């Protein structure tokens, strides 16, 4: 009986520990991948509101927003200094981004140009860890491309690529004089998102400002926070000190957070019910043990043993069964986690995610 119940406790504890570790590792990996290519908080200019115009008392004119240039932050240095002084902020980086066209030979791809301060931006998304070729360098005349974009263009490190503002018509010869500038590819970046890798072009901040026609301004300010799950509260605090549209990753990935919450709740229910099964198993064995030892209990009571002493005997038995089963279950859970990491691999041949 003792061996069977210890085995039951061992399996129950192993299941609880393994599933908990698996879900925590999965959620941590999901959040790391989600935040690996984006800032925790992004501050952007507030979009202008187009208001209808009254023509007379009974009729409202239909007003349509006119085409406009990129909305920018002019006093971004002052805003950055204010943000850096806020508690919980780890890193702040300016960004000048906009649409463009990458061209090489006959190949052309629509891209998003990211003008960055490399030293600051590396602290936001850890570009160094995502470098798959070349060097992490953005000197004047340099460009870093997404790895998938480089494949589409048939380019590699050291090649030259033309970045245009998109005003080149079809059939026009592709060269620097046709509305674009040539840059030397210094490095290739794999941000972990194929769509982003297929359109990402990283230029020095000043170069991108000139390219986008927003000299001296930026389109957004990216921030990294110490506690990713407090990003919403931090974003609200930042919005109170600067007249900007401040949005956290929790707002832009609301569906992901809902899925993680549901997963956590389901895991909690599994843990509760498995624990209840284990406790009922121990209790059933103790009940049987008490029934089987009725004569011995009577003899001990006749010799002067108190009711409390007899109760403690069986409580001690239950505690030893639970302790031994839990220790063996913890060892089994380590074996399960190690086996999962060894046998289950992703497309790149590496473990899907770490299990601690």
Features of the shown structure:
6-stranded mixed β-barrel, 12 helices, alpha+beta
Structural class call reads alpha+beta
Distance between the termini: 33 Å
**Dominant shape:** elongated
By DSSP, the count of extended strands is: 12
How would you portray this structure in words?
By secondary structure, the protein is of the alpha+beta class. It is 49% helix and 21% strand. It contains 12 helices and 12 strands. A 6-stranded mixed β-barrel has the order 4-5-10-7-9-8, surrounded by 4 helices. Strand 4 and strand 5 form a beta hairpin. The longest helix is centred in the last third of the chain and has 39 residues. The protein is elongated, with a radius of gyration of 31 Å. About 3% of the residues have low confidence.
Give a quick rundown of the structure.
Helices cover 49% and strands 21% of the residues. The protein has 356 residues and is of the alpha+beta class. The chain has a six-stranded mixed barrel with strand order 4-5-10-7-9-8, surrounded by four helices. Strands 2-3 form a two-stranded antiparallel ribbon.
Blueprint of the fold:
Elements: H1 2-36, E1 41-44, E2 53-56, E3 59-61, H2 76-84, E4 89-104, E5 107-116, H3 118-125, H4 127-130, E6 131-134, E7 142-146, H5 147-153, E8 160-164, E9 180-189, H6 194-197, E10 200-204, H7 205-212, E11 220-225, H8 231-241, E12 245-248, H9 249-252, H10 254-292, H11 294-302, H12 307-343
Parallel strand pairs: 5-10, 7-9
Antiparallel strand pairs: 1-11, 1-12, 2-3, 4-5, 4-8, 4-11, 6-9, 7-10, 8-9
